[in-house]
Specification:
By secondary structure, the chain is of the alpha+beta class. It has 4 domains: 5-182, Beta-Lactamase; 274-426, 2-Layer Sandwich (Heat Shock Protein 90); 428-575, GAF domain (Beta-Lactamase, 2-Layer Sandwich); 592-796, Hypothetical protein af1432. It is 48% helix and 17% strand. The strands form 5 sheets. A 6-stranded antiparallel β-sheet has the order 4-3-2-7-6-5, sandwiched between helices. Helix 18 runs antiparallel to helix 19 (633-645), helix 18 packs across helix 26 (762-774) and helix 24 crosses helix 25. The longest helix is centred in the first third of the chain and has 75 residues, at 154-228. The protein is globular, with a radius of gyration of 33 Å. It starts with a strand and ends in a 5-residue tail after the last helix. The relative contact order is 0.05. Mean pLDDT is 79; it is low at 1-14, 380-384 and 778-796.
């Protein structure tokens, strides 16, 4: 029987279904090329399900859209790229939200589903939607389209769900293959980059040490002469020698600054402070700086700027540096008593700026190397020209940072011409910041932003958390959401990019942990009275790989300073906040903001209701135990995050059942044992990471296979989940529950040992006990009940 039977009854062979499913399974197992696997999958599914159309749409986790291909029946099967934003409450949204098979008849429900898929040209009469799942992770949706009405029997429904499993297997195989190939490419690129970095480091040391040695030698020689002659009344060269020392110090400063500028440029830490600038006015600022150098060779600077030259949106300081470097470079190589010309004109939506000299020119075979780091064209007679060879590399980096391009044209013996083409308007970063404006204005998006900041404060156990975003020009940071700060402070706080702690993190896109703000040599500032502790954290907030602001965390509730594990946790939270904002931003009006807000609120409620009573010590033990058991750094970060949110699903359990010490009824037990799945479901709008879902789902599995919800055993349980199970049990016993007083650590350790090999992984238990024995003694916890404390919590 086919999985889908039309009203006009078909007669099929009994073994056709098994044969087709076997063929599809073989195709999934044997195909390695992603394109051929998808095509083969579509052919088998269309044939097996007797469908007219088939679409396989997978989540784009960055945007929240569904992306994939649509296929139509025929020989060969035709395919078309499809990208869909699910309509709230629509056909695709129902499949995804309920993770269940959905059938829709166009006559009963209208044509919305077919139009949503872009099938308006040949609208199907009936649609079947199947969730594509692997384990607990929802990867997307598969849609079957029919030009005829149909009905489903229980057996055919089961066949379709089995088909959905095979599709999920195929998708997982495709993704695993692509991920393996991607990691192989990344590894090869990393190896090549490492080789280049090693070569560049050697070259940097060689060139810079040579360049530094010359001025240092002069400084030392003239200083020693001055010291020897300090008491000689006949010595009258002090002024001249001090002038030379001053010049050589300036030269040293230029070398160091060039190296630092290029380092920032290549690491992507330089941010544009775009503003409208008039090139003639900028040249007025450049000319006084270059005049002394031009005068030494009797060179004239000629400006040939169009009268109707438009303003240029650019970073004034960086553009000044570009012009200074290009004019200084021209002055090195041009002949005395000649002109250096700067020309500028408009070309469409770009400005063309050229710097021309009348020097010796550059050989054609050397033109491609002039913008390389440390490369220097030799002067007349092969002599080396002074400089680090970094000036033109910096110029190229600045021009490309502005979205422009630069080239060099040269004729030997006649001179060279460096030509820049720059966009009149900087759209990339500014457009991204402009797209965030609704989060600061629309009530529902402001609610999402405020829920994010409160969730971070709750998970980080911080009294003050703030989200700061760039202004449109990237020159300042403003607080757009805060927890624990008064409205006046939020309104008046503005930090210039590069200044203070937040400005430094925003400019450099680096995570920052400050143990003591008053003694930190990078900042050394007095602590503000509103901050109870001198320790703080600040991390970049990124969207689509671009830093759009920072997240600050201050005043840990315990009063203790923040540490490296706290920083890792804040980084993990910042990633989820950035992903939530990006999905809401990309989805526009159709984005399900309420679901994301509900997920954030669920975490807050669960922690305030002590459903996740993970103490500070347990959090640190989780990270330390992960390191001892050889989890990689990313897995340790994930474990620390999951330790703070893993039991959020207990919100689905009735309050009376949670607080009861009596024996549960069968229905109550099922309700409790369903909380891991409920947790995954609650967090799904903000948590799409397979690894996180797998840990949450498995943290109540037992090592002997008698746990829930899936009865996994031994190594089938993720190691992080086995670690969390031990920590969770220890925390529960020593902290207490509403229905049970706390016990001593010694009693808790004895219970862990008793359940080692049955409930818990013996290796994890022993390593945990060994780790505890190495920890400093802690004061005993009071043996108390949490009932009154829980009753005071507002769960609404």
């Amino acid at each position: 029987m086919t999985p889908f039977e039309p009203v006009e009854r078909e007669v099929t062979r009994p073994n056709r279904l098994l044969t087709s499913l076997g063929s599809l399974s073989f195709a999934v197992q044997s195909a390695f090329d992603a394109h051929s696997l998808v095509s083969s999958l579509a052919t088998h599914v269309l044939d097996l399900a007797r469908a007219d159309r088939f679409a396989l749409l997978l989540f784009d986790y960055q945007t929240g859209e569904l992306d994939g291909e649509s296929f139509s029946q025929g020989r060969p099967v035709s395919a078309r790229k499809t990208r869909v934003i699910p309509n709230p409450g629509g056909f695709l949204d129902r499949v995804l939200r309920h993770e269940a098979l959905v059938v829709e008849d166009s006559e009963a429900h209208g044509a919305s589903a077919g139009e949503e898929l872009g099938w308006g040209d040949q609208r199907p009469r009936s649609l079947i939607g199947l969730p594509v799942l692997v384990g607990t992770s929802l990867l997307g949706v598969a849609v079957l389209g029919y030009g005829r009405p149909a009905r489903l029997t229980g057996r055919r429904r089961r066949s379709l769900l089995f088909l959905s499993d095979l599709i999920g297997l195929a998708v997982e195989r495709i993704r695993a293959r692509e991920e393996l190939e991607s990691k192989s490419r990344d590894l090869e690129m990393a190896r090549a980059a490492l080789r280049r970095a090693d070569e560049a480091k050697s070259e940097l040391i060689s060139v810079v040490s040579h360049e530094l040695r010359t001025p240092l030698t002069s400084i030392k020689a003239y200083t020693e002469t001055l010291m020897d002659a300090v008491e000689s009344p006949s010595f009258n060269m002090q002024q001249k020698f001090l002038g030379i020392i001053n010049e050589e110090c300036d030269r040293l400063s230029r070398i160091v600054n060039d190296v630092l500028d290029l380092s920032r440029m290549e690491s992507g830490r330089t941010r544009l402070k775009a503003e409208s600038i008039a090139l003639p006015r900028l040249m007025e600022e450049v000319i006084p700086t270059v005049e002394p150098e031009l005068a030494l060779k009797r060179l004239r600077l000629v400006l040939d700027l169009d009268r109707e030259l438009p303003v240029l949106e650019a970073d004034a300081d960086l553009m000044k540096q570009v012009l200074l470097n290009l004019i200084a470079n021209a002055a090195k190589f041009t002949r005395p008593d000649t002109d250096i010309t700067v020309r500028a004109s408009r070309a469409g939506d770009r400005m063309v700026i050229a710097v021309e000299d009348r020097g010796m020119g550059i050989p054609e075979d050397k033109l491609g190397r002039v913008f390389e780091r440390f490369y220097r064209v030799e002067g007349v007679g092969g002599e080396r020209v002074a400089g680090t060879g970094l000036g033109l590399a910096i110029v190229k980096g600045v021009v490309e940072l502005h979205g422009g391009s630069i080239r060099v044209e040269s004729v030997l013996g006649e001179g060279s011409r460096f030509v820049m083409e720059l966009p009149l308007h900087q759209r990339g970063f500014r457009s991204l910041i402009q797209s965030l404006t609704p989060f600061f204005e629309r009530p529902e998006l402001r609610t999402l932003l405020q829920s994010c900041v409160e969730m971070v404060a709750e998970v980080m156990e911080a009294k003050i958390v703030s989200f700061m975003f760039f202004s449109e020009d990237g020159g300042e940071l403003l607080i757009q959401a805060a927890y624990g700060l008064d409205s006046d402070t939020v309104a008046r706080t503005r930090v210039r990019t590069g200044d203070s702690i937040a400005g430094w993190v925003a400019q450099n896109s680096e995570n920052l942990h400050v143990p003591d703000v008053e003694s930190d040599r990078r900042f050394r500032k007095m602590n503000h009275p509103q901050y109870e502790t001198k320790s703080l954290l600040c991390v970049p907030l990124r969207i689509s790989g671009e830093t759009v602001g920072v997240i600050n965390a201050n005043n840990k509730v315990s009063g203790a300073p923040y540490d490296a594990d706290d920083l890792s946790l804040l980084v993990a939270l910042a990633q989820r906040v950035g992903a939530a904002i990006e999905r809401a931003r990309a989805a526009g009006e159709s984005g399900d903001v309420s679901a994301m807000v509900a997920a954030m609120r669920a975490i807050i409620r669960a922690r305030r209701a002590h459903l996740i009573p993970s103490s500070r010590r347990a959090f640190r033990l989780a990270a330390d135990l992960g390191r001892r058991l050889k989890l990689d750094a990313e897995e340790i970060d994930v474990l620390g995050y999951v330790a703070r949110v893993h039991d959020v699903g207990m919100l689905s359990v009735d309050t009376g059942v949670r607080a009861s010490a009596r024996r549960f009824t069968e229905s109550e037990r099922r309700e409790i044992e369903g909380h891991p799945q409920a947790g995954v479901q609650l967090l799904r709008p903000i948590e799409l990471t397979t690894r996180v879902n797998a840990i949450i789902l498995a943290h109540h599995e037992h090592f002997d296979g008698r746990g829930y919800p899936r009865g996994l055993r031994g190594e089938e349980i993720p190691l992080a989940a086995r670690i969390l199970a031990v920590l969770d049990a220890f925390e529960s016993m020593t902290y207490g529950r509403a229905y049970r007083d706390a016990v001593s650590e010694a009693d808790a350790i004895q219970e862990l040992r008793r359940c080692s090999g049955t409930q818990f992984d013996p290796r994890v238990v022993e390593e945990f006990i060994r780790l505890l024995s190495e920890q400093p003694e802690t004061a005993p916890r009071p043996r108390r009940s949490l009932v009154s404390e829980m009753n005071r919590e507002t769960l609404g």
